[in-house]
Amino acid sequence: MRTKQHFKYGTGIVVPCYNEEERLQLSEFSRFFKTDNTTFFCFVDDGSTDGTKKIVADFVKKNPERAQAVFLSFNQGKAEAVRQGIKTLIKTHKFQFVGYWDADLATPLSTIPEFIEKFQSCRALVAVSGSRILRLGASIHRSVLRHYLGRVFSTVASNILNLPVYDTQCGAKLFRTEHAELIFSKHFISRWFFDVELFARSIELMGREKTFNSIYEMPLSKWHDQGESKVSWGSIIWTPIELLRIYYHYRHRMNNSD
């Protein structure tokens, strides 16, 4: 039986990758290592068909103390890629916090310490989730179409959860490890909209009121749309069906927890 390795790092972050050869900015990770000594990364290649696997493998080989890699044999979707990465981190390392960060770094790596500071200032929190709120003093660059599609989606998701979540789909989230171990234990029913399931599972575990008080949406000071999304138009067309599946799967579980 493999024992957990004790690292000096307090945070483990999964970076899901699928055909990211052109967008994966590994130099940004190297630059981040120079200013941060508390974060460890797990890159999960989700069956990429381009050169992603090789560049990730090379990067991890050069930075074995700061990163590891998981290679899935075929494309399984972001939900399972993140879940496998979280399970790997929890199984092999001992971290206080684990989470995931989108590979395109639309949310800069420099935001990670802000998430940690929020946890440290509020011991009751089990999760911190990025929130792309366009406001004065923030640099949030997002296409008009994606902004309005996102607002419609988040409104529907918020109604499903009966929780005032502004932005379920931001790809920057951190969790206390003990909470992540519970909510990532089982497969998700949605390949792409598993973020909604994470909130639903938290409600199932803790009840709606405690979830409201234990998850903080961090208004991001910077988020820049990095171009083409991995979510296809076909996925967008299926969005209402996916949300209905999530609703019917979790509604009784959430209501029974209140």
Task: Report what the structure shows.
Helix content is 45%, strand content 18%. It is an alpha/beta fold. A seven-stranded mixed beta sheet has the order 3-2-1-4-7-5-8, with helices on both faces. Strands 6-9 form a two-stranded parallel sheet. Strand 1, helix 1 and strand 2 form a beta-alpha-beta unit. Helix 7 (194-206) packs across helix 8. It is globular. The model has no long low-confidence stretch (mean pLDDT 92).
Proportion of strand residues: 15-25%
Figure out the total of helices: 10
Based on secondary structure, the structural category is alpha/beta
Distance between the termini: 39 Å
- Main beta sheet, described? 7 strands, mixed
Order of strands in the sheet with the most strands? Answer: 3-2-1-4-7-5-8
What fraction, in percent, of the residue positions are helical?
A: 40-55%
Number of strands: 9
Mean pLDDT: 92
Molecular shape:
globular
Unreliable segments of 5+ consecutive residues: none
The Cα radius of gyration reads 17 Å
Return the string of H and E elements: EHEHEHEHEEHEHHHEEHH
Describe the structure using short key phrases.
single chain; 258 residues; alpha/beta; seven-stranded mixed sheet; 10 helices; 9 strands; 18% strand
Short description:
With 258 residues, the protein is α/β, with parallel strands linked by helices. The protein contains 10 helices and 9 strands.
Layout: helices, strands, pairs:
Elements: E1 11-17, H1 26-35, E2 39-46, H2 52-62, E3 67-72, H3 78-92, E4 97-101, H4 112-121, E5 127-131, E6 139-141, H5 144-161, E7 172-176, H6 177-183, H7 194-206, H8 208-214, E8 215-219, E9 222-224, H9 233-237, H10 239-257
Parallel strand pairs: 1-2, 1-4, 2-3, 5-8, 6-9
Antiparallel strand pairs: 4-7, 5-7
